[in-house]
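My main concern about presentation is that the manuscript never shows what a single data entry looks like. The format is easy to grasp once an entry is in front of the reader. For illustration, here is how one protein appears when written out as sequence plus structure tokens:
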Amino acid sequence: MKAVITVIGCDRIGIMAAITGILAKANDNILDISQTIMQELFTMIMLVDISKMNVEFSEMSDMLARAGKELGLDVRFQREEIFTSMHRI
């Protein structure tokens, strides 16, 4: 089972630490990550293995959203198949 995490917002110190810390506590494994800073806009997308996740999917989504809100970011957590279906042409 895999999930896609997207993060968008103003660049600041601690974004990576906050997001990856949550993933580590939930026993999620980052498979791939891409991040870019365009002027002052931070963007990141991660592919995460959630097969050994020790919390419910909805709880993880809430934890990431709360962290995003605290950092002034938009953080989304979606199952890979949903993300892929939404972005097909």
